[in-house]
């Protein structure tokens, strides 16, 4: 677990020959600030990171894992940022037994009284 947690510190020290065996390692670039995330394309009209930067937001940036998932969806499925966010969100809902409309998939769930 420690290796995974500190992967952004460890990966630069891994020899290039070993990194080439694991292509995902060579593509990993942590995006820890809003400015870095903005330059990577993690912004749109409906999700405006520039407003956070202009407003002097003191947070460090978006969740690294979520950011990497969205970037991977954008690359793999060739969609824009908003579509990738929607795909990721729908996957999270599906893992939790909820359909894209927000209704539970459990047949025993009470949705009306």
Series of secondary-structure elements, N-terminal to C-terminal:
HHHHHHHH
Please describe the biggest sheet, giving its number of strands, its sense, and whether it closes into a barrel: none
Shape: extended
Q: What oligomeric state best describes the polypeptide chains here?
A: single chain
Radius of gyration using CA atoms only:
18 Å
**Number of DSSP strand runs:** 0
Strand content: under 5%
Unreliable runs, pLDDT <50, ≥5 residues? none
Task: Work out the helicity level.
Answer: 40-55%
Structural classification:
mainly alpha
| Number of discrete helical segments | 8
What is the mean predicted local confidence, pLDDT?
Answer: 77
Amino-to-carboxy terminus distance: 46 Å
Explain what you see.
The chain is an all-alpha fold and 113 residues long. The protein has a domain at 1-29. The chain is built from 8 helices and no strands. It has helices at residues 2-5, 7-10, 16-21, 23-27, 34-39, 49-54, 64-77, 81-95. Helix 7 packs across helix 8 (81-95). The N and C termini lie far apart (46 Å). The model has no long low-confidence stretch (mean pLDDT 77). Belongs to the UPF0357 family. Keywords: Signal. InterPro entries: DUF2015.
């Amino acid at each position: 677990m420690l290796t995974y947690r500190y992967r952004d510190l460890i990966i630069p020290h891994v020899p290039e020959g070993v990194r080439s065996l694991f292509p995902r390692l060579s593509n990993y670039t942590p995006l820890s600030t809003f400015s870095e995330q903005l330059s990577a394309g993690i912004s749109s009209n409906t999700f405006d990171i520039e407003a956070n930067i202009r407003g002097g937001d003191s947070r460090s940036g978006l969740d690294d894992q979520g950011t990497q998932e969205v970037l991977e969806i954008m690359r793999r499925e060739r969609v824009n940022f908003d579509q990738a966010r929607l795909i990721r969100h729908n996957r999270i809902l599906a893992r939790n037994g909820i359909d894209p409309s927000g209704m539970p998939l459990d047949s025993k769930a009470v949705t009306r009284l």
